[in-house]
Amino acid sequence: MSLDNQQYLGAGGRAGLPLSRYQRYSTTNIDVALENHRNTLAPHSETPTYSGQFAIQAGESPANFKCTHNVIDLKNIAIHAVAYDAPISIIDETRAKKILSLVLVIDGYCEIDDGEKRFSVGPNQMFIINTGQTTKGFTSPNLAYIVVRIEVSAITPLLVHMMGRSTAAPLHFETNPSQGNP
């Protein structure tokens, strides 16, 4: 599938948004979007995986706000396709304790503040939200992205096997691998 940016115009019924057969919701109400985002963070957990605050705030024209969220949940891995039709800011201070998120921007741009540095991410670039990391994002209108959320417990044994040793430190990846060292 081509990541031609022209196919991702308009969040409501976005013709090219991946996983369209698995739409969780599409709304013009920012409160509905916020509640749905919160409910998809840890759907399998009986005990909270998250602590802290998660917020979505509309940018310049909240009247134009629209969000579509498609998701397929594969037990320890969930794949989300999300699109916004208005500039927003997302403040994720939930400090996910058991989840690693790989985010690929497919349309639009966002500024990411990971608590240590601030960087821009555009189409076909990715960033990572590590476990325990506070992240803030500030988006352009018409942002669309894919998130692969992985429970750390699902990949730790594989990484230990690949490295040939265990590690006492939690997994931590470069937040902005799209702009890493050559």
Task: Describe this structure as you would to a colleague.
With 182 residues, this protein is mainly beta. It is built from two helices and eleven strands, in the order βαββββββββββα. It has helices at residues 30-40, 152-163, and strands at 23-27, 54-58, 67-74, 77-84, 88-92, 99-107, 110-113, 118-121, 125-129, 135-139, 143-151. The strands form two sheets. It has a six-stranded antiparallel sheet with strand order 1-3-4-11-6-9. Strands 2-5-10-7-8 form a five-stranded antiparallel sheet. β3 (67-74) and β4 form a beta hairpin. The radius of gyration is 16 Å and the shape is globular.
Strand order of the largest sheet: 1-3-4-11-6-9
The string of secondary-structure elements, in order, is EHEEEEEEEEEEH
Q: What is the helix tally?
A: 2
Number of strands: 11
Residue stretches low in confidence (pLDDT < 50, at least 5 long) are 1-13, 42-52
Mean pLDDT: 76
Helix content: 10-25%
The span between the termini is 27 Å
Give the class from helix and strand content and strand pairing. Answer: mainly beta
Largest sheet: 6 strands, antiparallel
| Computed CA radius of gyration, to the nearest angstrom | 16 Å
Summary, kept brief:
This protein has 182 residues and is mainly beta. The chain has two helices and eleven strands, in the order βαββββββββββα.
Descriptive terms for the model:
182 residues; mainly beta; six-stranded antiparallel beta sheet; five-stranded antiparallel beta sheet; 2 helices; globular; disordered N terminus
Show the helix and strand layout.
Blueprint: E1 23-27, H1 30-40, E2 54-58, E3 67-74, E4 77-84, E5 88-92, E6 99-107, E7 110-113, E8 118-121, E9 125-129, E10 135-139, E11 143-151, H2 152-163
Antiparallel strand pairs: 1-3, 2-5, 3-4, 4-11, 5-10, 6-9, 6-11, 7-8, 7-10
